[in-house]
Design a protein that fits this description.
Organism: Comamonas aquatica
Structural class: alpha/beta
Largest sheet: 5 strands, mixed
Strand order of the largest sheet: 1-2-3-7-9
Shape: flat
InterPro entries: NERD
Distance between the termini: 90 Å
Pfam family, one: NERD
Protein name: NERD domain-containing protein
Number of strands: 12
Length: 333
């Protein structure tokens, strides 16, 4: 009997160990770090299989130090006589909503919505850094964003975004010769000499630089700056308020980072008008059920569209609703 109990305990221990191992493995597979590593490995394999190494020279996981002391990390760089291709890899799933010049894109996955930085804007910083470090004209640098997951664009996919192994024919579609073979070798030597060692310490230092930059950006944002309750009416009041304001330590100069952050993706960026702002409509008639006022409400659907309707002010006691059309203010020239 004792031996049977020992055997049973041993089997239960094995099952428990297996369950813990599966839970840990599931957590690793779902982590952003593993997804990023998987996406970069896939792109590396596609480039190695689809591009001739005699004409296309691929470098992976480059961490470069900028003149202002910060660092930039680039997933892949392909150097050829047709230019320098700067690849940013994103392993995403679900539906993607975004345009080329939007600051943020939206990922919808099982009714969950996540906003993330436009990878084209992120890759633009890489292009500006290489333009300065390599002394290469911006026209010779090509930005490419590679989606390695199962994500699908529900809006028009930008021209510089490709999915999966389509990155190979996209790179090979550039036929014009922009660089001489001697320039290609010079760029390869510069990248090899300036790149930092691809170690965990380098990655941790780069992440620390990113956090410091984001902290400085948040600290300097208008939302974090206290706004006085009343605006001074005279110049004397303004001078007094300025004199009594606490002194803020000046930020160390970062010419390259400031230039990169101030740049907008695209070689020539037109001035965009702000999007029209919906007005607050007023109901002309009260609720036909209880005579209470009607209020305007809007709710977003899963496909990104908005539904606009009238609802009784006494909701949820009165659930009367009517559809309405959103009114939009005209743009001021």
């Amino acid at each position: 009997m004792a031996a049977m109990w020992q055997q049973l305990h041993g089997v239960m221990g094995l099952w428990l160990l297996l369950a813990v191992g599966l839970a840990l493995l599931s957590g690793v597979l779902r982590s952003a770090r593993f997804k990023g590593w998987l996406g970069e490995r896939l792109v590396r394999r596609w480039l190695a299989q689809g591009l001739d190494p005699q004409h296309y020279h691929a470098l992976h996981d480059l961490t470069l130090r900028l003149p202002d002391g910060s660092t930039t990390q680039i997933d892949h760089v392909v150097v050829s006589v047709h230019g320098v291709f700067v690849l940013e890899t994103k392993h995403l799933q679900g539906w993607i909503f975004g345009a080329e010049r939007q600051q943020h894109w939206t990922q919808t996955f099982y009714r969950h919505r996540v906003r993330f930085q436009n990878p084209l804007r992120q890759n633009w910083r890489h292009l500006k850094a290489l333009e300065t470090l390599l002394d290469v004209p911006l026209a010779h640098l090509h930005s490419v964003v590679v989606l390695t997951g199962t994500a699908q664009f529900k809006t028009a996919m930008p021209a510089q975004v490709v999915q999966g192994a389509a990155v190979v024919p996209y790179v090979r579609s550039f036929n014009a010769q922009l660089l001489a073979p001697e320039a290609v070798q010079r760029i390869l030597q510069q990248l090899d000499a300036q790149r930092l060692a691809p170690t965990r310490a380098t990655h941790r230092a780069h992440v620390a630089h990113l956090r410091q930059r984001h902290a400085r950006a948040e600290g300097a944002s208008p939302a974090s700056t206290p706004v006085p309750a009343t605006v001074p009416a005279t110049a004397t009041a303004t001078a007094t308020a300025t004199a009594t304001a606490p002194a803020v330590a000046p930020r160390p100069p970062r010419p390259l980072a400031d230039a990169v952050e101030a740049a907008i993706p695209g070689r020539t960026e037109p001035v965009l008008h702000p999007e029209p702002v919906p007005t607050t409509p007023q109901a002309t008639e009260p609720c036909p059920r209880c005579a209470a006022p009607l209020v305007a409400r809007s709710v977003s659907r899963d496909d990104g569209a908005w539904l606009h309707f009238w609802r009784c002010q006494r909701f949820p006691e009165c659930r009367h609703m009517l559809p309405r059309t959103a009114q939009v203010l005209p743009l001021e020239e």
